[in-house]
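To whoever is on call:

I kicked off a structure prediction for a single chain this morning and the downstream step that reads the tokens threw a length-mismatch warning. I double-checked the sequence; it's 278 residues and nothing unusual in it as far as I can see. Pasting both halves so you can look.
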Amino acid sequence: MTQSLSDLPHQRFGQKFDVTADFKLSDTLSTLLLHRSCRHYRHKTVSDDVVRTLLAAAFSAPSKSDLQQVSVIRITDQAKLNRLARHNHEVGWIADAPEFMVWCGDNRRIRTLSKWKQHDFANDHLDAFMNAAVDVGIALQSFISAAESIGLGCCRVSQIRDDIEFLSKELALPNWVFPVAGLCVGWPVKPEKISIRLPLEITVHDNIYNDSRLIDETTEYDIRREQADPTEPAQQRLRNKYGVTERYGWPEDKTRQYAEPMRTDFGAYIRKQGFDLA
């Protein structure tokens, strides 16, 4: 490792961190700080033993009350993967991923076991859904970190939920199992760009929540991000509605993204899967 821990965050946050002399840069810290999404893969398979080892690392992650409410569906049928790619044309490149899997929250498992043990399932409310969803996020990130630590590249794909009924049917998901995100895995063609993130001054709060400097801090962040990775006019969202701006940065892009409804059927789908969200 040629970079120090004080220098490494500069690529993402635009600032150096003061670090005490006894705090060393580890492989784990380096992997996390250098994370980048990968969408272009070499024509090389990821062996099954590697995938299973990475899944073992992912399922070693913390789990709420040891309930272990995560299931992963590996899409090994290329015809099925092609259908998913065609149906989600904005992410059609997923068909070229050497490994594609869908990470699901699984509250069905504990319900089935409760019935087997003839115990009441007395927690049929919003928390049941939330615990499973959060567990998926933790396990999924653990998989990504483990994969990147051995040189693999990953990209989380939430767009596969744009047509939740189609996806659910393709995966034959029963009640109380729901998809959270897809994940592409493969050997990168080349290192991708590091996504510049909001400064910790925005995202970390001391003792109480305080966003009084949100606009000022975001404005400074926006300038740095747009300088590093400018957006072409043709890439600007909703140009017919909001026009083309000279400087199209992160807040402009993300607020435009959320200016139109997305996945408005997801709540109904989750209820149809058996969850009581009260």
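Update from on-call: the warning came from a stale cache, not from the record. Cleared it. Sanity check on the structure: The radius of gyration is 21 Å.
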